[in-house]
Amino acid sequence: MTLRFFGKDPNTNGDHCPTVWLDEDRQEFVFQGWKADEALQVQCLETGPIPETEAVIRLPARMVQQIREALDAADGSAVR
What we know:
2 helices
């Protein structure tokens, strides 16, 4: 697996914070985020079940730059 780092939440101290990567081999996004609370999970369940192998996480909107960079890299539009 080739994991490409794009950034951490810019408003945190660098520890235990939301992070964005791209697994370049599998072409999958990898996110570290805050666990969803029960109320959010209940709302998400309104659109269907959440399998045991999946999780609902939160990422702050201020991470849009890191997410955009990962998206561009995944579709090949990013300049390396």
